[in-house]
Design brief:
- The protein is mostly helical.
- Helices cover 65% and strands 0% of the residues.
- It has 16 helices and no strands.
- The protein has helices at 3-6, 12-21, 30-43, 48-57, 66-80, 85-90, 99-112, 119-123, 127-139, 147-164, 171-180, 189-203, 209-213, 222-236, 242-246, 250-261.
- Helix 9 packs parallel to helix 11 and helix 10 (147-164) packs parallel to helix 12.
- It is elongated, with a radius of gyration of 27 Å.
- Keywords: Transcription, Transcription regulation, Transcription termination, Transit peptide.
- InterPro entries: MTERF, MTERF_sf.
- One of its GO terms (molecular function) is nucleic acid binding.
- One of its GO terms (cellular component) is chloroplast.
């Protein structure tokens, strides 16, 4: 491409690198296709030398549509994410990610849980690593979370799906459960999760969704509290949410039953 036509003074070596990395650019019109995209980036108050750097790091930018890619993602970045133009200069690959499929969902999750993360960390990592980093950020002052503990907890979603023929709990819901009840990371799958999930679904005939609302369920003894309280409710023909059934003391639990019976 010609430097003067594109409007940016670019060394021969840099031009060759861009062309080699993105051969498809050869079929584009400089005047009608490439120049408008470069001008758009410059209009965002990105210095021309920074635009060159962005293109060198991510030549695919020049293949994207201004209306369908650049504008909606820039608007979301500024208005919804409240980020500045400096992040685009550091991470031009932002434009490579799906707005609906990745950018919005991850940003919503960060906002809902009070997290802040650079664009690179937010988008470049896999789904599992993204959630793992959030858990470590939240729990680091409280408990040391190693990768083994994190991975072991994710296994429960697979166990639920395979053992009980259910879709299980979405990974983001698992993360929410951990953030609400960090002690879950210390529990055994075989000795805690599996028997309690089995009892919840088969004996109590509850929905797996109740675990998302009350992950502390796993903190209570199956034989010492869950089973006895459930049997009492069945005998009296009562139903209660897991939290009301388990969080109260025996005296308050019995008083609740007497009150309802009266």
């Amino acid at each position: 491409m010609e430097e003067l036509e594109v409007g940016i003074v670019m060394e021969e070596e840099k031009r060759i690198r861009i062309t080699c990395q993105t051969d498809v650019l050869l079929v584009y019109s400089v005047e009608h296709t490439l120049t408008p995209k470069i001008d758009y980036l410059v209009s965002l108050r990105i210095a021309r030398n920074n635009v060159v750097s962005m293109i060198l790091r991510s030549p695919g930018l020049l293949t994207f549509s201004i209306e369908k890619n650049f504008k909606p993602k820039v608007e979301y970045l500024f208005k919804e994410m409240d980020r500045n133009i400096g992040e685009l200069k550091k991470f031009p690959k932002y434009f490579l990610f799906s707005l609906e499929g990745k950018i919005k969902p991850r940003n919503r999750f960060l906002v809902e849980h009070g997290f802040m993360m650079p664009l690179t960390e937010m988008l470049k990592v896999s789904e599992g690593e993204f959630y793992a980093r959030l858990i470590k950020m939240r729990l680091w002052p409280i408990v040391i979370v190693d990768d083994a503990a994190l991975k072991s907890f994710y296994v429960i979603t697979i166990l639920i799906a395979s053992t009980f023929d259910l879709e299980g709990i979405a990974r983001e819901n698992v993360v929410c459960m951990i953030l609400r009840s960090p002690g879950l990371l210390t529990f055994s799958i075989e000795k805690n999760f599996r028997p309690k999930v089995e009892y919840l679904l088969k004996e109590m005939d509850r929905d797996i969704g109740e675990l998302k609302k009350f992950p502390q369920y796993f903190s209570f003894s199956l034989k010492g509290k869950i089973k006895p309280r459930h049997r009492i409710l069945v005998e009296h023909g009562f139903t209660m949410s897991l939290s009301k059934m388990l969080k109260v003391r025996d005296r308050d639990f019995n008083a609740k039953l007497k009150c309802d019976c009266g």
